Input
Amino acid sequence: MRQPHSELATSTSDAAASIGPSAEPPEADSGTPSPRAVVARRVLRGAVLLGILADPLLRNEPWGLGLLVWMAAFAALAVGLARQGGRPFSRESGVWLGVAVLFAAGLSWRDAGMLHAFDVLAMLAALVLLAMSIAARPVPGLAPARVRDLIRAAFGTGLDVATGVVPLAIRDAELHTALRPSSDGRVRRVGRALLITAPILLVFTLLLTRADPVFGSFFTFPDVEVDVLLSHVVIAGFFAWVTAGWLRRSLLAHSGVGGEAGTPAAPFPLTLGATDVAIALGALNLLFSAFVIVQIGWLFGGEALVLRTTGLSYAEYARRGFFELTVVAGLLLPVLLAAQALIPDSDFRTLRIFRRLAAPLVLLLGAMMLSAGARMRLYVEYYGISVDRLYATAFMLWLATVFVWLAVTVLRSRPRAFATGLVVSGFAVLFTLNVLNPDALVARANLARGESVVRTGAAGADLRYVARLGGDAVPVLVSALTAPNVDVDAAPAAERCAAANILLERWTGERRARMARSWTQWNLARFRAARAVRAHEAELRQLACPASTSTGRAPDPAPALPPRSAGPPEATP
Output
């Protein structure tokens, strides 16, 4: 098993050393493809097959089970080609391939638009790490990688995915040798004659069939819709293109070109000195210190201080701060990582100054994150929870974890361990979100607000908002609307009937039929949502009101329904 790998490595090195216009593979004259060309041709065939498979599985939106099936086929092809090509498929490679398939499965598990976007990004990130692990470019795995290596791996993989199919087909596959099946060129001459004859014969056949209906009855041409045919070609071609580029990056990467494992990275054109680091990080420390001092005032001064200094209510003040502080925390991380990367490893004095100034900066940022958490708590207390606020809170918690890891690794002269914690914690947080089921969590939190908000003057449950969440939230809302529930009964009648209207519009009738027209779109959460609505459709239709209510306009007085619980009927707003 070792001999084919050494031959492939030798062929790869020779190809990398002779990329000029006059370069020819050693076996080109004999018509025998090189080992590299054999792998390249397998890559092309596999990419074409995956592109054809992607057309029926991924052409309909929203994606569901079809993506999982396609990723499983992709995984089988990648493993098979890696083993046939002599590329080592390590345990780490298997882990990243499993992670990619796992997050692809998220699109057939949960029904939440933002979570689906994050799952797709996680799947693509896992594929980048898989390509890095197989090709050992720029490093052989995650453990020895630094953040700059991850950036280079992502950029290099993206570039090869976008353009790799061109050199794969033109140079790597040595297709010119496949066009020499015989020394006398007989097959080539016949093929060229057929290419010349076919369009001419087709044009004259079409004209003659139109000239004589009797003659035309012998020929039946399919009624092809050009736009539909073109859409099939575009979808299959796109997935074949990107798959071929990824496989070339993983299986046919030139060792020694673009960063061989173990080769020191080229130095950055810009470096930072002691003065640069001291002034920049010192100024940030002063700015963050001033901000933290102000935060102490509002945390302990209460609503009176906020109203006196800003003219804002406590709720408005909390609403304006959390997302800005999240952006600050997100920007500080690349600033610190970039500063550390631009300091030469031999400049111990500047590195010492960096660590001494970065440590208090991280502590001050921690205080700012506590302030952001307090703002979010007030924000949710007054306005309720939403998926945006939930994801922002999760992002802030992940950043807090990353900054703790930064202090433990980078600020203690162990920068190579930082990238591993960064990647693993990101995947862990996203997997936790999938398990927690964000849309259902938000629905339960909104429905539980009930009568407790009356005492604080905050907003009540927004049933319209809950009804527009993904399929995971639907069984929760249907159960609350159709069963005695004091929290929902406390909501205005217009809210209840509008929510029922939205549920019926989204999960019954033709719209729902279009969403589930193919098994490739099957999704567990959407299946459960449709089943819950169908099971209680009669009750929901009794609650439903005119369409104007679901759009936010006030309904007519007539359709206002009394609450199901005992008590006087509610006035319709």
In short: Residues 1-29, 255-263, 454-458, 548-573 have pLDDT under 50 and may be disordered. The first helix runs from residue 2 to 17. The chain has three domains: 2-15+31-179+228-251, 274-436, 441-550.
